[in-house]
Amino acid sequence: MAHFVFFVLLFAGQVIGGFSTQKLPQSDSGNTLTILSIDGGGIRGIIPAKVLDHLDKALKAKDPNADLAHYFDAIGGTSTGSQITTMLATPSPDDPNRGTFTPAQIVDFYKQNYPHIFNQSRPGNGPMFDGEFALNLTRELLKDTRINQTLTHVVITSFDIKTQKPVIFSNYKLENVPHLNGLLSDILMSSTAAPTILPPYYFENDGVEFNMADGGIAANNPTRATVSEVVQQNEDSEILVLSLGTGTVNSSNTSGIDFIGGAAASMTEYYVASLFEGFKLGHTYLRIEEYNLNPAFSNAFNVTQANMDGLEETGKQLLQENVLKLNLDTFDLEKLGETNAQALDRIADILYEERQRRLKRKSMEKGGRPIIQTPRVLSDKTQASGKLLRNLFN
Length: 394
Description:
By secondary structure, the protein is α/β, with parallel strands linked by helices. Helix content is about 40%, strand content about 15%. The strands form 3 sheets. Strands 2, 3, 4, 5, 6, 7 and 8 form a 7-stranded mixed beta sheet that branches. The protein has a two-stranded antiparallel sheet with strand order 1-9. It is globular, with a radius of gyration of 20 Å.
C-alpha cells in the first residue's frame, strides 16, 4: 500500500487489540495524525480522566509545558466524553494557548460538580433531573467560545430528535456547514442530554434550529465518527488513535437493555478491529476498556462520594492491568504482556517525538505554519483513498 495508515486505539480500561511486540513505527517527516476519542458514560467519565492523567504526566515528564491539546490533531467525544473533550480543547481564560482543564482537574471537576448536576432534589418535569445546574455551569465555563475557536479539532456527537438524524459538530465541517459553528456550551449541552435523565436541549444557530439529545443515541463510542472526520479532510498518513471508554459490566452480570447495549458495544469494537485487520497494516488495533466493572459502580448517575471514589480507584487499578486483545473469531479477550500504563507510556513517546518533528519542521519552513493542520483540498489520488476509508466506516 503506497500510503501507510497506522491506527492505535486505546479505551480507558483494558485494551482491545493490544500493542504488538514489534517496535511501533516512527514518522520521519512528522506526518502522523493523532486522535483522541472518549466514550459516553455519565459520572463514569472519571475513569478515562484518570487514564488521561497518566498520559498527561508522562508527557510532562518529557516537556513540563505539555498540554494534551497540543498533542492531538482531533479529540472526539460523546456525552461525558464530550465534557472531557471541551475541557481539554477550550482555551483557558488565563492562557489562551492551553486547555481550560488538565485531566487531574477534570477528575476534581466531576467530583465537585456532578453531585449538583445529578441532584435528586432537583427533579425535572419528566426527566430525572432538570438540567439547570448543568446549563448554568456550562455557560459559565465556556462563555462565548465557539467550536472554531478550540485549540485543536473536536468531533462531538449528538442526535436531533426532530429530524431523527445524528448531528456531528466538527471543526472539519464548518466550511461546508457553517451553522454547525455553534457555541461550545450549546454543543456540550446537546451531547450530554441523556433521554429520561436530562431534558432535550433546544437552541438556534445561524438561523437553524436544533432539537438535541445525547450523542450516545447514535454513537456512544465516537471512534468511528472521529476517525471518519479526520480521514475525509487529511491526506493519507500514519494515524494514531487513543480511544478511551468508561467501563462495562461483565455480561453475566447484566440483563435486558444493558445486555443489548453491551452486545452493540462489542459489535462496534469488532467492526473497527476487523476493519484494520482488513487493511493488513501489520500493526495492532488497541482499545483500553474495563470489561469487568464492579456492578456497584455501573450506574452512570450515581454521584455518591463512595461511588465516585470507587470510579477513581478503578481508573488507577486499570492502569496496572494487562492490555487485552480482542479475538475477532471468538470475541474472547486475550491478555498481552504489558500493562495499560506501559502502553500509555509508549503512546507518550510517539506523541512527543511527533510533536518535536513538527516543531523542527515548522522552524525550518519559511514563515512556518500551524502545528495543527487545517483542512485542505485533497489530490484526486488522496480523495480516492479517503473514499475507500469512508466507505468502510459507513
